[in-house]
Amino acid sequence: MKRSEIITKDALRVATLAIVALGILTYAVIRLGTAAHLFSRRYSLYAFVPNASGLREGGQVTVAGQLAGSITKIEFLPVDADTMRNLRLTVQLDENLQQQVRFDSRVMLRNQGLLGERFFDITPGTPRFRPLHNGDTLVLGPSMDYDMMIQRAAAVLTDVAGLTHDLRGLTQSVARGVGTIGKLLTDRALYDRLNATLGSTSNLLARLQNPNGSVGKLLDDPQLYNNLTEMVTQVDSLMTRLNSGQGSAGKLLRDDSLYTNLVTVTARADSLVASLSKGNGTASKLLSDTTLYNQMVQAVGHLNEILADVKKNPKRYTKGAIKIF
Fold it and tell me: Does any domain span residue 306?
């Protein structure tokens, strides 16, 4: 009787533990199923993608980053010219989220971290478009291609490696004293010359700062500044007088009487020149008619003949001119 009571207590303990474990398992399954939307009603949507790399059947589907369903099928389509529709994905979503997925929703193929698993993310739609129903098609949006990024990163790393190699070669050349920079770092003579140049420059600056020199006067003596200021003041006063029309120069700048007179004189001179050109009047005849010129030449010729005859026979012209009383 004692033995059967002990067995009964052990069996009771085992049964109790089993019931507790089954309760815990049931609770966990319910919680996990609720979190994964396993017990909710679902509807199916389709999406066409060029490449399903990183995706798998049973992979998670999210809406705005929140778990909403799973990928149930990935199947190849017949080969055609449209390389953007190589594969068709069938996804199942929780019907409670149907109002979030609309015709303007887009599919993004994202990664969990840089090297994490790829998943299927859907952006929420807007009220302007109706919700998608069972059997509708989702539109694929622009997604980041990590393979392309890795290829570009590899190319960048290759360039960086080449640049590092070039820098190593450059630093080695500089360390050996090759080139101007190398000479600057390794040549003592160049350092001495630079040091001497700096010393000469220092002496020159000291001489320039001498208050008795011309440059020192320019730096320290305000007399030149005062003279320049006074000259600018006088020039400003002169310009003011000129602008006010005072004096002869002011009249030349402001008064147009001289200009009017010059225009009148020019017009008259132009008229006179035109009259002379037309041949009117004595002056015009003098300019254009050669008759007077020819007569003057002839008269001068006769006068020369008379003078020559006077020199030869003066008595002919003086006979009887002198009378004695």
Answer: no
Domain hosting 284: range is 256-297
63-74 in b/e burial notation, b at 16+ Cβ within 10 A?
beeeebbbbeee
What percent of the chain has pLDDT above 90?
14
pLDDT averaged over every residue in the chain = 78
Answer whether 0.70 is exceeded by the pTM: no
Task: Mark whether 93 and 31 lie in a shared domain.
Answer: no
What does R_g of the chain's alpha carbons equal in angstroms?
59
Is position 50 within any domain?
Answer: yes
CA–chain centroid gap for 147, Å, is 33
Cβ atoms 318, 311 nearer than 8 A: no
178 lies in some domain? no
- Judgement on whether residues 3 and 67 belong to the same structural domain of the protein: no
**Measured between alpha carbons, how far is residue 307 from residues 147, 296, 303 in Å?**
127, 16, 6
In a domain, 75, yes or no: yes
pLDDT at residue 1 is higher than 50: no
Beta carbons of 139 and 49 less than 8 angstroms apart: no
Task: Calculate the CA 302 to chain-centre distance.
Answer: 94
Task: Give 286's pLDDT tier (boundaries 50, 70, 90).
Answer: low
